[in-house]
Amino acid sequence: MLGHEFALYVNKYLSEQNLSLEHVQKIESNPEKSRHLETAKGYIYGQWIDFINLRTETYCEESRVPNMEFGTPEEDAFRRDITINALFYNIQTNRLEDFTGKGIEDLKNKFIRTPLCPKITFTEDPLRILRTVRFASRLNFKLSDDIAEAARIPEIKQALQHKVSRSRIGNEIDKMLTGAHPVLAIQFLNSFNLLDVIIDKPETLDTNLDLFDYSEAVTSLEFPKKYYPFTDKFLRLLRFSAFLLPFRHYNYMEKRKSYSYCRYIMRTGFQLPNNDTNAVVILQKNIDDIIKVIHTNINDRIAIGDLITNTGILPVYDDWSVSLLLALITELVTTPDYEKKEQILEKYNQLAKNIDDFELGDAWSWKTILDGKHALAVLNMKPGPKTRAIMTSIKHWQFLNPRGTAEECEAWLKQTYL
Questions:
Q1: Which residues touch 339 (CB under 8 Å, ≥6 apart)?
Q2: Residues near 187 by Cβ (< 8 Å), separated by ≥ 6?
Q3: Does residue 204 sit in helix, strand or coil?
Q4: Are 7 and 24 in contact (CB under 8 A)?
Q5: CA 236 from centre of chain
Q6: Are strands 87-90 and 95-98 parallel, antiparallel or unpaired?
Q7: Which residues, in sequence order, are CB contacts of 97 under 8 Å at separation 6+?
């Protein structure tokens, strides 16, 4: 019985108990992309549950593409990615079963290794390289030396790059960056020389990425740990944006248009949702504008108001503070001198205080207190070249007078333009 069929039986049983297995999904096998199993998943009691049949593999002499067959628990255990994922709980005997003989020991010793030789395991499904990194970083476990050696084999790296779908790679990176120790995950990837494999490159990119120093990305990910007023949603965006900091000034061409390279990595390289892609691109774009205000116009209400209206990452998540923190991270990781770091931090604290004192925190959501038609009627003017400048001046008046009324704005408008 395959996983999807069993999931339907489970759902039928739960229905008889006035429960249900929600969102049952069938996930087809795709051997060309190293997805050899048909599986299913369902949602119950706040958890996603995977349904997978026990299996083993046989190979013919002419091909290394495996033939999947139903297997025993022991056969299945030795084909798992890592030993701690090869443990079974027998619901008939209420006992834990460790068919590899290593899983329980490795849990106790906080150790990640594969049941079989890593080269065999990774050749079967190269994505398992990333899975070992994800589990090691999430649990803060040590990786075995033979995993590191196998991960550096050129043929396995090429298989990861060309045989595994970008969506599966993106899913693993997403889980690494939202895990407990994202820096450790990036350090593992860097030590295995895998960053240039997982970061996909368009043909039209106008630089050689082999020259990049990924230490900036790794270091920058340390800082979000210290700032947890953010929800998981914001923290996830912040970590993706920090991870991609080294690429923020590079563009590629698509249909004769220039786009941010971060857009390509998020959308094509990791195949993440458009909302996430757009948010990261805007966050990256905001950095230079924030840094400019920090060092030139930190006490200027109008400059700060313009900044907030441009950096509230509308319409995705509506929060300028994520942009502010990313800009701070960018400056801190590129400033070696400790005293200068302290000065930079003071300036960002001052900007945050000014935004609060000036009552501009939600300025990104404001509508002009007078619309264009109303403003022109007050001035007895027809639409023309000056209209845009007039509307901009009204917006700036609001920054200077956040509690001002429409009548006060009308009086100011007449005094200024008549």
A1: none
A2: 218
A3: coil
A4: yes
A5: 5
A6: antiparallel
A7: 73, 87, 88, 89, 90
Say what the pTM is. 0.83
Please answer whether residues 212 and 246 qualify as being in contact, where contact means their C-beta atoms are separated by less than 8 angstroms: yes
DSSP string computed for 243-272: HTGGGTT-EEEETTEEEEHHHHIIIIIS--
The tokens describing 38, both together, are 């048909």
Which residues on adjacent β-strands are paired with residue 387?
none
Tokens read off for 383: 């639409």
Q: What letter represents residue 197's amino acid?
A: V
Rounded distance, CA 396 to CA 1, Å? 68
CB 239 within 8 A of CB 178: yes
d(CA 415, CA 418): 6
CA dihedral of 287, 290, 292, 293, whole degrees rounded to 10:
180
Contact 394, 405 (CB under 8 A): no
Task: Name every residue whose Cβ is closer than 8 Å to that of residue 135 and which is 6 or more positions away in sequence.
Answer: 82, 84, 85, 112, 141
- CA 89, distance to chain mean position in Å, is 33
Q: Where are the domains of the chain?
A: 367-417
Distance, in Å, from the CA atom of 308 to the CA atom of 85, rounded to the nearest integer, reads 47
How many other CB atoms are there within 10 angstroms of residue 87's CB atom?
18
Q: What is the pLDDT along the chain (418 residues), one digit of tens a residue?
A: 888 888 888 888 888 888 877 777 887 766 555 455 678 888 888 888 888 888 887 654 444 456 677 889 999 999 899 999 999 999 899 999 999 999 999 999 999 999 999 999 999 889 999 999 999 999 999 999 999 999 999 999 999 999 899 999 999 999 999 998 998 999 999 999 998 899 887 776 655 554 455 666 677 666 655 555 567 888 888 899 989 988 888 898 988 999 999 999 999 999 999 999 999 998 898 899 999 999 999 999 999 999 998 766 544 456 688 888 889 988 988 888 889 999 999 999 999 999 999 999 989 889 999 999 999 999 999 999 999 999 999 999 999 999 999 999 999 999 999 8
Buried b (16+ CB within 10 A) or exposed e, 181-220: bbbbbbbbbeebebbbbbbbbbeebeeeeeebebebbbbb
Residue 198 contacts residue 189 (beta carbons within 8 Å): yes
CA-based nearest residue to 117, from 78, 60, 61, 85: 78
